[in-house]
Amino acid sequence: MINELNAISKYQPLLQPMQSQVEKKEEVQDTKFSDTMKNFLDEVNTSQVESNELAESFVKGEDVDLHDVTIAAQKAKTSFQLLLELRNKGLDLYREVLRMQV
User: Fold this and answer.
1) Which of 17, 41, 45, 51 lies at a CB distance of 3.0 to 4.6 Å from 76, suitable for a disulfide?
2) If you ran DSSP here, which 8-state letter would residue 61 be given?
3) In terms of DSSP H, where are the helices of the chain?
4) Nearest to 58 by CA among 71, 41, 39, 47
5) Which of 32, 46, 30 is nearest to 80 (CA)?
6) Is residue 80 part of a domain?
7) Is the residue at 14 inside a domain?
């Protein structure tokens, strides 16, 4: 019996990180959907601004690589397309809820 207790206590340090991960997941679940969407909007806006700044710098002849400009433009385009799809799905969901009969 004592040997079994010693065996369990030897694994106790391994269980503590798992418990802290569970606590972190509980903290993450407290975020609101509106906050998540606002953060995503801010990230899309930031990527758009960075893309525009890189393109302007390239046009002005500053030391900017062309591949950095194209990568930033594609990243901004992709994130904006994702944002539009999320908006469209949200509108579809809203319209579907309006059509529901109570």
Assistant:
1) 51
2) T
3) 2-10, 12-28, 33-60, 66-99
4) 71
5) 46
6) yes
7) no
- 41 belongs to a structural domain: yes
Does 69 have pLDDT greater than 60?
yes
Greater confidence (19 vs 33) lies with: 33
Residue 11 counted as domain residue: no
The span from the CA of 32 to the CA of 66, in Å, is 39
Give, in order, the Cα–Cα distances in Å from 18 to each of 6, 11, 15, 23.
20, 12, 5, 9
Give the 3-state secondary structure of residue 65. Answer: coil
CA dist 70 and 79 (Å) reads 14
Q: What is the mean pLDDT of residues 90-97?
A: 95
The amino acid occupying position 97 is V
Instruction: State the Cα–Cα distance between residues 1 and 90, nearest whole angstrom.
Output: 58
Helix/strand/coil for 101: coil
| Total domains, the chain | 1
Domain that holds residue 92: 31-99
| C-alpha dist (Å) from residue 93 to 45, 58, 90, 98 | 24, 42, 5, 9
